[in-house]
Amino acid sequence: MFVRLAVALTFSCLTSQLQATVKQWTPNTNYENPASWRDGHLPCSSDSVVFPSRVTVLLQSKVKVMKWVLPADGEIILGSGAEMSLFDADSAAEEAGCSGRSVYQAAAGDWWDADSWLPLPPAAELLDTEYVPCLHDDAFFPSNISYKVALDADVESQISTVSIGNRAYRSQQEFLQYLNTTRGLADFVYKGAAPNARVTGVDCKDETGCACGHDLGTTFDKICSLKMPNCRPARCAAAITPVGSCCPLCGASIEMNYERGFRIAKLRDALASQDATLQPVVTTIVSKRSDGKIQVVFKDDDDLAGAASVAKGRSFFAYLHSNKVQLGISHVLVTECEVSTRSEALTSLSTGAVTGVVFGVILIIFVAVTVAVVMLRCRPSFPTISAPSRPPISMRMRDLFRKNGDDDMESVIAPGSISAQVQYDEPAVGTYRGFDNPMYDSPPLPDITSMTNLNRGRSEMVETMVEIKLNPIFESHISKEEEEAVPAGGGEGRRAEKVVEEEEEGKKEREEDESYA
């Protein structure tokens, strides 16, 4: 608890008195960090723990091991609640994956690694090169962690203040004195007699803003060489890379010159008033570049692919253009990424709206599939409607003979003896008699009465019936009066006479046709 309180008080003093941007070192070499050990895991209770020379380790928990091998020129810092104890060989339990020896081997973090620094307050957003402590910043190393920092001898770093725990060093001489102590030699690694770091103690007092100084030269190259392998691919077309940024980003950038009367705080206030009416997902970064220009960068979440930030950049550009005199700026230029139609559509929808649309589409598809399955399973079966069956041919033949007075046909031809597959139209009433059609030059029809004397098989009966040819053009009709005038048993004579008459009529017609021809 005491350590945390000291850190809070130190930070409060720095922000109130020095009025500098504070960058806090985040990697730690604590005992409880698995990355601090050669095997990548914490020591087991059956291990011998070995610490190399020139090391500073913070222990914040209760630890029991077989053996401690401590360095002569290092430090083990016991935090609140820390405890070190030893097991004897008999009571130590063997654990899986333990080799019996754990070596502390924490790697040194690079001073120029932008991912190793965190601006305070943590909500602040900066460009890639601005995360590393700048010319007017305070490099803060909290006392609740142990650390190891590598200073590059080829690149000089200039900072205002170095704060280690609750002690602030604001001059080069003070910082060098600390580096020569046992703790300083363990915490900072460098080549040569002195580190290539210069502490100036100079704070930013320029109302137009102060440049970081990392956006050009060897400093920029060093920072970006460490940052670029960790850059995430941009999800927009023609991503922009603002001055001071190592990674391309989806968004917009506005640069401007400033005139007499310009105040960078006034520009930030104008942005804050615009934030209340614009997309809250957009991050705004205001900085002064090494070339003396003011730069405002807008970037949003990767899922929006720059659409929201481009919209905000355009809106603020219009505001600046119409308020140049009041803000004291000139030559305002805007650069933006290329936004796809899909990304522009997403900006008009909140996360809840997009989620609702997705679930709505899924629900509609589910209901449609369910209805289709139910209709297929419950499809009504309609009864089969069949045409009325025709009477058997034998019955039709029997009716034919009954109409001509031959009732004995029923006893000669049994019902259903003729195949039902022989199909032809039912003759109308009074058209049961065939005749010799001269157009087909067919022989005289056999006497139909002779069929009553047939007692043959089914196949011969079918053949006899197929030879009958009925021509509806020349068929003769017998009126009901003529049928009634025929006496019972006299059907044979009447039919014979009728056949003779029809033959004579046919002969006359042929003669007339020949004479006409």
What does this structure look like?
Helix content is 32%, strand content 16%. With 517 residues, it is α/β, with parallel strands linked by helices. Strands 10-1-11-14-15 form a five-stranded mixed beta sheet. The protein has a four-stranded antiparallel beta sheet with strand order 19-20-18-21. Strand 19 and strand 20 (294-299) form a beta hairpin. The radius of gyration is 55 Å and the shape is elongated. The model is unreliable at 1-19, 342-350, 392-398, 400-433 and 447-467 (pLDDT under 50).
Q: What is the compact description of this entry?
A:
The chain is α/β, with parallel strands linked by helices. Helix content is 32%, strand content 16%. The strands form seven sheets. It has a five-stranded mixed beta sheet. A four-stranded antiparallel beta sheet has the order 19-20-18-21.
Helix content: 25-40%
Average pLDDT works out at 75
Distance between the termini: 138 Å
Q: From the alpha carbons, calculate the radius of gyration and give it in angstroms.
A: 55 Å
Strand order of the largest sheet: 10-1-11-14-15
Q: Globular, elongated, flat, extended or rod-shaped: what is the shape?
A: elongated
Number of helices: 14
Main pleated sheet: 5 strands, mixed
Please count the beta strands (DSSP E, at least 2 residues each): 21
> SS-based structural class?
alpha/beta
Uncertain stretches: 1-19, 342-350, 392-398, 400-433, 447-467
Beta content: 15-25%
